Amino acid sequence: METETLEKNAPVKLTAKDFVSDQEVKWCPGCGDYSILKQVQTVLPDFVTEKEKVVFVSGIGCSSRFPYYMDTYGMHSIHGRATAIATGVKVANPDLNVWVIGGDGDLMSIGGNHFIHMLRRNPNIKLIMFNNQIYGLTKGQYSPTSEKGKVTKSTPYGSVDEPFNPAELALGAKASFLARTLDRDPKHQQTIFKRANEHKGTAFVEVYQNCPVFNDGAFFIYTEKETKKEEALLLEQGKPLVFGQSESKGIRLDGFTPTIVELTDGVSKDDLWIHDETDKVKASILAQFANYDDKHHMPRPFGVLYKENRSCFDEDVAAQINAAQSKRGKTPLNKILSGDKTWVIA
Amino acid sequence: MDTTTETKSTRKTEIKETESVVVRFSGDSGDGMQLTGMQFTDTSALLGKDISTFPEYPAEIRAPAGTVAGVSGFQVHFGSKEIFTPGDFYDVLVAMNSAALKTDLHRVRKGGTVVVNTAGFDSKNLKLANYPEGANPLEDGTLDGYTVYKIDVTRLTKEALKDSGLGMKEIERSKNMFVLGMLFWMFDKSMDFTIKSLEEKFAKKPEILNANITVLKAGWNYGDTTEIFTTRYKISAAKLPAGTYRNISGNQAVAIGAVAAAEKAGLQLFLGSYPITPASDILHELSKFKANGVKTFQAEDEIAAICSAIGATYTGALGMTTTSGPGMALKTEAMGLAMIFEIPLLIVDIQRGGPSTGLPTKTEQADLLMAMFGRHGEAPLPIIAASTPADCFDAVYEAIKISIEHMVPVVFLSDGYIANGAEPWRFPTEDQLPPINVKFTTENNNPGGNFLPYKRDENGVRPWVIPGTKGLEHRIGGLEKQHETGNVSYDSKNHELMIKLRAEKVEKIADFIPLAKPDSGNTKGKMCVLGWGSTYGAIKTALIDLHAEGYDVAHVHLRHMNPFPKNLGELLHSYEKVLIPEMNCGQLLQLIRAKYLVPAVGYNKVQGLPFTTEEIKEKIKELYNA
What we know:
By secondary structure, chain A is an alpha/beta fold. Chain A has helices spanning 2-9, 33-47, 82-92, 104-110, 112-121, 166-172, 186-198, 220-223, 225-231, 280-287, 313-328, 333-338, and strands spanning 54-58, 73-76, 97-103, 125-131, 177-182, 203-208, 232-234, 242-243, 249-254, 257-262, 300-307, 343-345. Chain B is of the alpha/beta class.
């Protein structure tokens, strides 16, 4: 009898289907969000055995509908605040596996403050930003990651705003894990989500996500066959920075300046910049690739740009409580009520 | 210097027996008046006097020394009778400088006592306090009609510490202890409690400890040996109900009320807060309770503060956020979210003078309508208001009980006056506290189908399911929900139904709160004074006097601002006249008139200061006889 019960309760490996909720997915046809949803549902069974311990928290925007489609615990909250709510969730119960989903408008604009503060505190939360460089749900205004000069409904003469570079912002806010991936590269996404899950601390993943309605093709140069080899640089730990058709180009560091070199003219892979995701200086140079103009054009890096091990906020909070409890012990409620100084009236 | 704590007076002076006394310590922000006042209060309380205190600080931490803007005051009212307010007028004013005298003299009772530190009345100080060139209130007859003691406290302190080896700055800082010693002598109080507390405070700084004790005793001895003081006061212990008491401020009571409620509910307490005057002390206080598992989170802003608390509650903790008006304004969107989530959450608003930054250190009751209506959409929330410092404990405890048992965020209103004010509290024991029932749902309420997170019980309350509960995975959100399933629904009829169900749930709380009844006076008759929040003490005291004078006036005081007690309308209609005093422009007045069609009359004061008993009495008489 007993063994039977045990066997019955033994964890059965979950499948992607176990993470699909009964709600109809309502993103536009062709939206990059579908792929991200699919990859998250695909990788979760690799490391989740108890889906009741998974919580997805989102803000507002197209991408923030995400939790409704996941058969886990989840919360669709208010614009920009998912990071703050998730911090409360994780601190109150560090045992939960907490994911935040948001768009570039949600996390970089209205939620910019909470975004940077979550990164500096570093709670053990996975933070996935769907960057489509546009406001989709409100029907097409420029976002804080839209390029300068962008013509949208709210900028008919072109945007005069300088955009954020999310990777640079995240490093400036002391992100302990920084990665970038693409909606149109399912395998790469899966690898990155697994790496994010393994990271202890806030894992910030920027996903370039196509909005077929309001900003179609924003990232096609990194995803389409004709251009992606020249424009996308895939980072791998310990490997040289190589890109281009038939891997003919590499990147060398001259001091702090990255330079593109042809691998044919006497330059070998050994002369190239070897990717070290634990090197913050190199990570900030990689983050700045997106800032280079046409004169010094650089391919866009994808993969884990940076990773460091530092203490997690939720664990530190718990440790402080444990230390206080073992040092002082719990004050009995009656003692709290009476305080230190009392007097008696007969 | 004598090292024993001999506190028996050696000199014969006139001993005046009196029922109650109001003492005001007033000086520069850096003069240590708050500490002096608190020490004096603690000693009074421990000797069995009933007390009520009111600290008043400038908004600037260190306004220019010697100016009126920099005056910091601490008022204590103590006596052998029951005390309900810090007092309207001062019997004794201690003024450490010209600015303090200028600020506070108008509230000294005629014939009252004024103790001045003459060192604060040199030409520089007089000029800083904006006295006209050549004028000196100590010499020009300003103080005629008062009993005045002019003492060079600064010089006497320096004298007492000349061999201490301390620097001028430390010596200057000790002068408040001289005043305290002198006042202890004047009111026949022991120095023991203060000495003990100094010993605890300066255990690691023996030279500072010795200096403080030396100066304290020097002050006492000065009173005892010099001939200038002719009168001492004697106040018997108060005839308070028998029991064990402690002294407590409103903000302290909020903090331990929350700790007690969380413990009785068996929940982890999580406070998400952002520093703001006058609420920060609750954050400070709760941050001390780490050993009891209390988690405090100083967020990056007011919004993150409430959002983190929402996240914590979602996991099954008791989420709480504390703020004042400007922060409350920032939290409103998240309050709406918690409301539509239908989760417990305690939102504490310690009201201060507004609008905008307003008067950060002054009191007001002008956030009632914001608490009531300050959210977009139809988003009613229960509101509980505390009436005295000690009442903050019971009120916050009840707010949490309602929040948990009815799955609804509750707004708790206090204000700067009772948050910083203190009074004796006959504290309860753990087993006297009412139980708080937490039910985490672990079973599917829809066997064979999907769990229904918004299926309600007979009180309209939905189940509380926390992450980690196997098989009940579900999503909640700010989009309108389908009845019972909680799925996103844009159906128009469903929206109206959900709005009604959420409102009905809040209304239903009226079945769980006590009926309204007069605090004093009759249940019907000529007149009723309807109060709420911190006006309690002033109204109560006014009615004691008016009843003695034969007035037929009752005092009804509200704790439950939403929903109101079920019989409130009926009760108010049983009086010919209803007066509503409020420290705002008539916010409860609007609610009462709109809901019950009672021709109530407002009495409104928005000066950043509480009502005096006299003001309330005058207004009652005016309306009564009109």
